[in-house]
Request: fold
Amino acid sequence: MNLLKEFSLKDKCSYLDNKEQIMDYKIIDDCSSHYTQELIERGYRRFGKMFFRPVCDGCQECQSIKIDVNNYNFSKSERRVIKKAKDIKSYAQVPTLTQEHLSLFEKYHKFMKDKKGWKYQETSADHYYNSFVIGHEDYGYEILYFDDDKLIGVDLIDVLDDGISSIYFYYDPDYSHLSLGKLSLLMQIKFAKEAQKDWIYLGYYVKGCSSLDYKADYKPFTTLQGRPLITEKYIWS
Reply:
């Protein structure tokens, strides 16, 4: 492991209006699965070689949560989602970058701009590569979802010692009727059960943020207490 850079930045809050955020960043080369888990357990997220977490003064709205896989039971509606997508094929591999990836990524974010008011900025191949391809080491994967030979969804995950860290998912809005976002998370839970992993690390839940509200539906989950340093013990409850 090689810590290349460590810094903090103050900016407009990504999740709540009229608030500012302070983010801690660590740029790490050759980060091991074990150390990645140590960071994830303390509220960090990984994009490429960059690990980050909010450390805002006087605000604890960003709650790191993880799904309790062993005690998770699929509901009837969730089983219907899985059944509805029975003809969709999926494949796991190390993260890659193709024109298909970029086109689908752009299509999804233009859709979310109209649907939820997300800020839209065209993504370059370099930006995508640095965010989702490099830094995967021997534990990062992409799950590709296909309708016949058409790419319709990409789920980026880290498979860690005791769970799966859910990094990012994007999909073809023409297939919204298949609830692909929900399907991808249900498939993560299904895989974790089969692989005897205990947790799905979902990142941040922020009450009142429409883009993150869905996370509260996946119960039971536990919540990280505070923002412990890497040298401090972490507590989930």
Q: What stands out?
A: The chain has a mean pLDDT of 94.
